[in-house]
């Protein structure tokens, strides 16, 4: 925001006519920066979908289910996958819609509203992905434990000794927390930085609108 600070310093030094020019220039600069930020949010979300699609091809859940001889779960996972992609595509459409709105906005108040709307959409998107991660981990652990024949030895040990069950649950919780933490950190760094910059723009606009 160095350019904005310089403009505001000049704004305070000169007369009222220059104040009006500076206000317009500040708005244009914030408008441009906000549009750029939302564009990057859209691009990153698309790249993220492409990344998960590539990973799903490399790690095929259908092959795993066939390996443990429980292919009857495949249709359910396909429905879940399609539903998940449908929700993500809706979010991407909303990001695109927000980008168009911010790019074409002509008033300060409307730009402020569009910025807040975009921030909420991104926050919902992040929490949805984190919730889906937790859900997927729970389903994956249940299927692996209940239906994978390789888990029979572990089940016998748990039946014989409760400590083994406590250790197993502890390990699963630790793995889940580590994965959740990594994903949360990723979203915090990538989307969090963009959202903080977007909110900084909102606060600058609020000063102009007063």
TrEMBL record:
Q: Which domain of life is it from?
A: Bacteria
InterPro entries documented for this protein: MFS_trans_sf (IPR036259)
| Keywords, alphabetical | Membrane, Transmembrane, Transmembrane helix
- Residues crossing the lipid bilayer are 37-59, 79-103, 124-147, 167-187
Q: Where is the signal peptide?
A: none
Protein's UniProt name: Beta-carotene 15,15'-monooxygenase
Q: Which organism is it from?
A: Flavobacterium fryxellicola
